[in-house]
Design brief:
The complex is a heterotrimer of chains A (250), B (435) and C (498). Chain A has helices at 42-50, 74-80, 97-111, 119-132, 137-141, 150-164, 180-192, 208-212, 233-241, 244-247; strands at 4-13, 16-26, 31-35, 56-64, 67-68, 82-85, 92-96, 143-144, 168-172, 199-204, 217-222, 225-230. With 250 residues, chain A is an alpha/beta fold. Chain A has a six-stranded mixed sheet with strand order 6-9-10-3-11-12, with helices on both faces. A four-stranded antiparallel sheet of chain A has the order 2-1-4-5, covered by helices on one side. The longest helix of chain A is centred in the middle third of the chain and has 15 residues, at 97-111. The relative contact order of chain A is 0.18. Helix content of chain B is 26%, strand content 37%. Chain B has one domain. In chain B, helix 1 packs antiparallel against helix 2 and helix 9 (395-411) packs antiparallel against helix 10 (417-434). Chain B has helices at 12-22, 29-45, 60-63, 76-89, 111-115, 123-129, 142-150, 382-390, 395-411, 417-434; strands at residues 95-100, 103-104, 119-122, 155-159, 169-175, 181-190, 195-204, 211-220, 225-232, 239-248, 253-260, 265-274, 280-289, 294-303, 309-318, 323-332, 340-349, 355-364, 370-378. Chain C has 498 residues and is an alpha/beta fold. In chain C, strand 3 and strand 4 (151-155) form a beta hairpin. In chain C, helix 1 crosses helix 11, helix 2 runs antiparallel to helix 3 and helix 4 (106-115) runs antiparallel to helix 5 (119-125). In chain C, strands 5, 6, 8, 10, 11, 13, 15, 16, 18, 20 and 22 form an eleven-stranded mixed sheet that branches. In chain C, strands 4-3-7-9-12-14-17-19-21-23 form a ten-stranded mixed sheet. In chain C, strands 1-2 form a two-stranded antiparallel sheet. The chains are: A alpha/beta (250), B alpha/beta (435), C alpha/beta (498). Chain B binds chain C through residues 53, 56, 334, 337, 347, 349-379, and chain C through 73, 397, 400, 410, 412-442. Strand 18 (355-364) of chain B pairs antiparallel with strand 22 (418-427) of chain C, so a sheet runs across the interface.
């Protein structure tokens, strides 16, 4: 059974259709890249998979391990193993990062009927992961993402990904606002999480990110549909020739 | 609401009440005359209503209707009920002074331990020995006049110059008498260079539909360091109106915090005067309101002298059909140059029928000042809620976390770690009860 | 910033403590008998050849007024007004129906010349049009209705406006010529019983402007009314009514001056605005009534009720005011946001100097869904003046999605004045989002020193800083007005730094 199946998905936002019948299948262990120009519906897809309010699914299905994802609340989806790394991670003043991480992790475990993490195990794990991502401990005491730089925010997303151990990671424009060094650290973090049991969907406008996170499959999105799929070379081809060739195909 | 009887304003019932109470009230003939005069002031004004500017949002005629008869002196049964409530609400490590239905309960109080470091008397004793100036305040507000007329008892604390209290003092007001009112008045004097923490708690021991009218006079000397925490945790159908007069000397630090977590109608009206230069005020408050509760925090910070700093942070969380009122006024007198006064108030509305009224005022008569206020009202941020839910938090938990963070900005101003934790715990319990 | 340079030069030329509009025009006038009674009301109505319904409306207001008392909640302090010691009507004499500018008393035209504000309006009143090729591209056409004491003396560009279907005329004429419109809208925003001064106005208003913009019409030029109080002991009670029908747009300017006198003069105007679906009204005021002398003697009591009703969906009303004059200002231009998605704006500069007292602000009443409002208030207190911002923002239960942003900043110049902020913020549903911020500060010594070190005088430096402080609001004014306003601001602050 595929991990994620998006079938003929149609989505509206305030009376305007953004996705016009999108189909996508992702299996365990695969890394898919979704590329496309601005406004092609890439971020909409990631939001709908994660369950963000404000989107109306008018047709189609999203199955996660065969279960209907659209019937689940965002937190249920998270507990099932769906993780969205946000393009713009929000700042939550007053909620210490450490408190947030523990509350979220335990909420997910509780929803899955697992026991809560013991504090020493949790702290040990946080320390390990944050060290590998170059996240200083005092950052974890601050409010979630409050006063973090762009790179720090993205690293905080990867930190959560590592802690929560989701089976599907959707990375929405992870490279936006990052310089090369920050991008490399974040990408190294992501690569360390690649495993035969975990799939990733990397959403990006630019090919640059795919030099660091090398995909198995590349999809090109245009005007709310996947218009072409292929191997990693497709990304290079796009880099050379641009998106214009697909505008009409859509 | 049980207390809202049909009758409005000051009526016969109150006059009868005063006539019957007069004989029981402490004080010399001169004090009795002053009480009668205060009562006449009250009778002339009646309960405050919306056309009195200071009471615009808390119309006691509409909300309360009538003043209930004076509670009887607590009997053994009442004291035993009160003892249980005191146990439940006592703050670990604090020394207690307990008032039951407005009457000082020596047996429930730690008088001996406190007396080792400070002078402690009751209002009753003080009025019988001293002049009645304790009944006089700068205000002619109707509820304060009523308090002066009927104040039965209270605590009179004197903390000597240089004294460093080794433990906080907690004044616990316990209500045991249903459908009755209690009038208390206390005074706390803190000498030069003294260091003290005091807490006032308002709790119910099974009592319903009671009314509290309390007044506190706080006089703080120079170079003092004072923490003052108030916890208004009354029964859901109770009325609690407290007036507080604070005078702050020079180079003093005052860390003040109020939290209202119950009561059908609660109002704290504080008048805080900076009378000496170089002092720093940190004044903070949280209202956690649900059902049809009405919580009002009205504070006047009066910068009467130059070179003082005041910081005020208020948070209101309003659920169901509750109504939160915040009125904060910063006055800067003509000579109070170099005043630095800032105030921030935010209201979080959790229900479509909740109401938040904010009136932050600046009244400034000196030019070399830096003053400001901010006020916001709104619902929980959907973006933040989604982020938390996308990380696996169920809706109620996500809301609770954001609400805690929201009120945390005020609570974290409490300087004392243990007290802060205690207040955080109270807020958490309120949130748990909500979900 | 050439405008600032202009201000600076202006300041150099002006003598301190001189109100430049303080001259009196010697023209004969036709006055109502002193005092207020039903007879006065009937006299005014008869002078205006009003229909019976109008007289009835006035008399009802007068009877209501007799039962009312003066409001005392504002932070202003003045001796009790003897309403029987005032004249309620004064028209320049000889007065006949004015059909062309030539018929206007030359003395009045001279007055406008002397006023110099707004300058081009004088030119227009005198019929001077720029020669072809010499038009200032930045200068739009402005139609002017001039109200002298209580009477509208001239309205320009009537024909051109008529072509567009816009009605712009003295309200006294509108009562006769468009009774159906006046009857429908007069008192529909500010009811006759609204408040003491509005009720008084309803009984005795003598003239003012009437504007009706038909559906879909964008008014082809700025409309302007110019008010001047000239006569001694005369109350001025003008009444303005502006209706923007569906999908229309109109921008309206109002300027005011009065001569210098020792006694106080009363001004109690009412302005009503109605915006239907998709309509927009922009209302700008530069108020420069005589503020009294340096001892606080004389000056205008300006007790004005201004209110706009965003009656239709997607309608918008925007108030901009520059208040520099009057001994006492009591004024709260407000918006009732009734239509869904309607928007209200209030931009204000209130400057007080000498013994002036200002209590001004706005009310934004959110009733419709997704209504938005914005308040930007800049108060500047100097001398021995008191300057209060008083504002209400309220979102009713059904006003889901209501949003308000408020910023009110005060600047104090000198240590004998007061600046006060009294906002009322009422949220009655959870989807309302309100943000309010207020600051009070003095002009930074560092900034002043920097400017002075670069060669500006103290006064010039203050003018520069103040103009920066009020910039956000000045930008809301039509450009010609903005320049005038900028000059006024500097002039009003003269003598405030020592």
């Amino acid at each position: 059974m595929p991990l994620l199946e998006v079938k003929d998905l149609k989505v509206r936002v305030e009376e305007r259709e953004i996705l016009h019948g999108l189909t996508l299948t992702v299996n365990e262990g695969e890394v898919h890249a979704i590329m496309g120009p601005n406004g092609s519906g890439k971020s909409t897809l990631s939001h709908v998979i994660a369950g963000k309010p404000g989107y109306e699914v008018t047709d189609g299905q999203i199955l996660f391990r065969g279960e209907d994802l659209l019937e689940m609340s965002p937190d249920e989806r998270a507990a099932k193993g769906v993780f969205l790394a946000f393009q713009y991670p929000v700042e939550i003043p007053g909620v210490a990062t450490m408190t947030f991480l523990r509350t979220a992790l335990n909420a997910q475990r509780k929803a899955r009927g697992e026991s809560e993490y013991s504090t020493p195990d949790f702290l040990k794990k946080v320390r390990e992961v944050s060290k590998s991502l170059n996240i200083p401990q005092d950052m974890l005491k601050r409010g979630v993402n409050v006063g973090f730089s762009g790179g720090e925010k993205k690293r905080n997303e990867v930190l959560q990904m590592a802690l929560f151990e989701p089976s599907l990671c959707i990375l929405d424009e992870m490279d936006s606002g990052l310089d090369i060094d920050a991008l490399r650290i974040a990408a190294d973090g992501v690569n360390a999480l690649r495993s035969p049991k975990r799939a990733m969907v990397v959403i990006t406008h630019y090919q640059r990110l795919l030099n660091y996170i090398v995909p198995d499959v590349v999809h090109v999105m245009s005007k709310g549909r996947v218009v072409k799929s292929g191997g990693k070379d497709l990304a290079l081809e796009l880099e050379a020739s641009g998106y214009a060739q697909f505008e009409d195909a859509a | 609401m049980n207390v809202a009887l049909a009758k409005t304003g000051s009526g016969r019932a109150v006059s009868d009440l005063f006539a019957s109470a007069e004989g029981l009230l402490p004080g010399s003939p001169a004090i009795k005359a002053a009480r009668r005069q205060a009562f006449e002031t009250y009778e002339r004004l009646g309960l405050p209503h919306r056309r009195i500017e200071e009471w615009k949002y808390t119309d006691l005629r509409a909300l309360v209707g009538e003043v209930l008869p004076l509670a009887a002196s607590p009997d053994a049964g009442a004291l035993s009920k009160a003892a249980d409530a005191v146990k439940a609400h006592a703050i670990a490590g604090a020394r207690k002074l307990v008032l039951v239905d407005g009457v000082f309960a020596a047996d429930l109080s730690d008088v001996k331990a406190i007396a080792a470091e400070a002078s402690v008397k009751t209002l009753r004793e003080t009025l019988e020995k001293d002049a009645g100036d304790i009944l006089t305040t700068s205000s002619t507000d109707a509820v304060i006049s009523l308090n002066a007329a009927l104040a039965t008892d209270g605590v009179v604390l004197e903390i000597a110059d240089g004294a460093q209290l080794s433990a906080p003092i907690q004044i616990i007001h316990v209500a045991t008498a249903a459908s009755a009112s209690a009038y208390s008045r206390s005074r706390v004097r803190i000498g030069k260079g003294a260091r003290a923490t005091f807490i006032e708690s308002f709790v119910a021991a099974g009592a319903k539909a009671y009314q509290v009218n309390d007044a506190v006079i706080v006089e703080i000397g120079d170079n003092a360091d004072v923490a003052h925490i108030r916890l208004m945790d009354d029964a859901p159908d109770a009325v609690n109106i407290t007036s507080q007069f604070v005078t702050v000397g020079a180079d003093t630090k005052l860390n003040f915090f109020n939290m209202t977590t119950g009561g059908a109608v609660s109002r704290l009206q504080g008048f805080i005067k900076l009378a000496g230069e170089g002092s720093e005020l940190s004044i903070n408050g949280v209202n956690l309101l649900k059902k049809t509760e009405h919580g009002d925090l009205t504070l006047v910070v009066d910068h009467a002298v130059p070179n003082c700093t005041s910081r005020e942070i208020f948070r209101a969380v309003i659920d169901d059909r509750a109504h939160s009122v915040f009125q904060g006024r910063i006055i800067v007198r003509p000579d109070a140059q170099k005043t630095d006064g800032k105030m921030m108030t935010r209201a979080l509305l959790l229900s479509d029928e909740a109401e938040a009224d904010n009136k932050p005022e600046l009244e400034i008569f000196a030019d070399d000042v830096s003053c400001g206020h901010g006020a916001t009202a709104g619902a929980l941020d959907d973006t933040l809620l989604f982020y938390l839910r996308a990380r696996g938090l169920p809706e109620k938990d996500a809301q609770a976390l954001l609400i805690q963070a929201f009120v945390g900005e005020a609570i974290e101003q409490i300087a004392d770690d243990d007290l802060r934790e205690h207040v955080v715990g109270m807020a958490e319990r309120w949130l748990e009860r909500r979900s | 910033m050439p405008a600032v340079q202009e201000t600076v030069e202006r300041v150099k030329r002006i003598d301190v403590d001189q109100y430049r509009y303080g001259f009196e025009t010697l023209i004969e006038s036709d006055k109502a008998p002193k005092g207020l009674s039903e007879e006065t009301v009937k006299f005014i109505s008869a002078k205006k050849n009003e229909p019976a319904w109008m007289l009835q409306w006035r008399l009802e207001a007068y009877r209501r007024w007799l039962t009312m008392t003066e409001p005392t909640w504002a932070r202003v302090d003045y001796p009790k007004i003897d309403f029987q010691d005032l004249y309620y009507y004064s028209a320049p004499k000889p007065k006949k129906t004015v059909t062309s500018l030539d018929e206007i008393d030359p003395e009045i035209l001279k007055t406008y010349e002397k006023l110099g504000i707004p300058l081009r309006e004088v030119a227009m009143l005198e019929g001077v049009e720029p020669k072809p090729g010499e038009e200032d591209p930045n200068r739009r056409k402005i139609a002017v209705d001039a109200v002298f004491d209580s009477v509208s003396v001239a309205t320009t560009f009537k024909a051109e406006l008529k072509k567009a279907g816009v009605i712009f005329m003295p309200i006294s004429e509108a009562i006769r010529e468009h009774p159906e419109l006046v009857q429908k809208y007069l008192g529909s925003v500010v009811p006759t019983s609204d408040n003491f001064y509005a009720t008084l106005n309803s009984a005795v208003f003598s003239d003012g402007s009437f504007v009706y913009v038909p559906p879909g019409v964008r008014c082809p030029m700025e409309l302007s009314t110019y008010f001047r109080i000239n006569e001694r002991n005369t109350g001025q009670f003008e009444r303005t009514l502006i209706i923007a029908d569906k999908g229309s747009y109109v921008s309206y300017l109002e300027g005011c001056t009065a001569p210098q006198r020792d006694e106080n003069q009363l001004h109690a105007a009412v302005v009503e605005l109605v915006a239907h679906d998709d309509a927009e009204i922009k209302y700008s005021t530069v108020q420069n009534w005589y503020p009294g002398n340096s001892e606080g003697k004389g000056g205008i009591y300006n007790f004005v009720t201004k209110r706009g009703d965003c009656r239709g969906n997607n309608s918008k009303i925007s108030w901009t005011q520059v208040e520099t004059g009057s001994a006492i200002t009591w004024k709260y231009p407000s918006c009732i946001l009734r239509g869904d998605n309607s928007r209200g704006e209030f931009y204000s500069i209130a400057i007080s100097n000498g013994f002036q007292q200002v209590d001004s602000g706005t009310k934004m009443i959110h009733l419709g869904k997704n209504t938005t409002s914005r308040i930007i208030s800049k108060g500047i207190a100097a001398g021995k003046s008191q300057n209060t911002y008083r504002g209400l923002v309220t979102a009713h239960r059904k006003a889901t999605g209501a949003r308000n942003f408020t910023a009110c900043d005060s600047l104090l110049i000198g240590d004998k004045c007061g600046a006060h902020t009294v906002p009322y913020i009422e949220a009655k549903n959870s989807s309302a989002t309100f943000e309010h911020e207020a600051t009070t500060s003095k002009i930074s010594e560092d900034v002043l020193f920097y400017c002075i070190q670069r060669g500006l005088s103290q006064e010039e430096a203050v003018g520069l800083v103040v103009n920066g402080f009020v910039k956000d609001v000045l930008q809301q004014l039509p450009m010609e007005f903005a320049v005038e306003a900028q000059k006024l601001i500097s002039i009003s602050l003269e003598g405030s730094v020592g």
